Amino acid sequence: MSAPKIKVLCVDDSALIRDLLTEIINSQPDMEVVAVAPDPIAARDLIKRHNPDVLTLDVEMPRMDGLDFLERLMRLRPMPVLMVSSLTQAGSEITLRALELGALDFVAKPSLGIRSGMQAYAEEITDKLRAAARSRPRQARRRDAPAPRTLKAPLVSSEKLIIIGASTGGTEAIRSVLEPLPPNSPAILITQHMPGGFTRSFAERLDRLCQISVKEAQDGERILPGHAYIAPGDTHLKLARSGANYVARLDAGPPVNRHRPSVDVLFDSAAQQAGRNAIGVLLTGMGKDGAAGLLKMRQAGSPTLAQDEASCVVFGMPREAIALGAASDVVALDEVAPRLLKLVAASGRAQRV
User: Fold this and answer.
1) What percent of the chain has pLDDT over 70?
2) For 161-352, which CATH class?
3) Per-residue CA distances from 333 to 56, 174, 313, 330 (Å)
4) Dihedral of the CA atoms 18, 89, 41, 139 (nearest 10)?
5) Are 178 and 228 in contact (CB under 8 A)?
6) Are the C-beta atoms of residues 276 and 160 closer than 8 Å to each other?
7) 161-352 matches 6-134 in CATH topology
8) What does the UniProt record tell us about how this protein is modified after translation (predicted)?
9) Domain map of the chain by residue range?
10) Catalytic site residues?
């Protein structure tokens, strides 16, 4: 007996987009569009009638703001939501707010009339719908929630580095890791699977929320303590050396594991250039990107952490890393930041002995 199909409800004010999404989704043997809606008002009744497994939601629509609708939905009937976003500064900021409100992930709006990249787009959206159907709906972070208590960092040398990789669910997971870190934390390099145009807004948002400074990485810049550097969308981030200093290197080479930026590319470079001076962290995400690279970091002497299944939105990348023996420890998301600082302190004590 075959498994039931994933039921998808598409909400978008563009009839062309609704038709395109329906065509892509219905071409898959394991999913189907059970209904479409031009706005959230119409979507409310369709959700009750069809009980979809996943909702695709345009970020900007008439009659009711998509964010208002999402906030109410996640409070009253939490379900996996995949945002469909325009590739603009405003679109990226709205999308990041949607992820904060509990949306699982996002895809960019397709370029209508350009069929050459449509196969890759279809693979991306259907992969994300499958991950969404298997995911755990998250509780949205309350607007009035107090900021997390800032942790106390040990004295660290400029040699210490934290290397983080994430995908689906990663924007909020990375926020959870960075927010409690004190201003004198070790330098942090981050690869989050995101398209170009979104990572700058992501970095700026984190910079406003965190005690450390957060920015998009620039090619050749020195890696400094108290700073986090995010791989720009569509560009690999690598760790390199320039004399006695660590520097960032950006690389527009081909995708690795279908991703650019790729977590494996960052982790491989950290294994080669930093060895035991780096700590590797693999957070929530679908697929296997980062698993092999985390193993290389562990083999090079780095402590390595993988997020546990219970706290992952999608337990894909961490599961692959654990299966490879790449993780020296498996921890819940809210334990990652304190564990990182304990590892840094332990490393510092070992060097002084």
Assistant:
1) 90
2) alpha beta
3) 26, 9, 11, 10
4) 110
5) yes
6) no
7) yes
8) Phosphorylated by CheA. Phosphorylation of the N-terminal regulatory domain activates the methylesterase activity.
9) 6-134, 161-352
10) 167, 193, 289
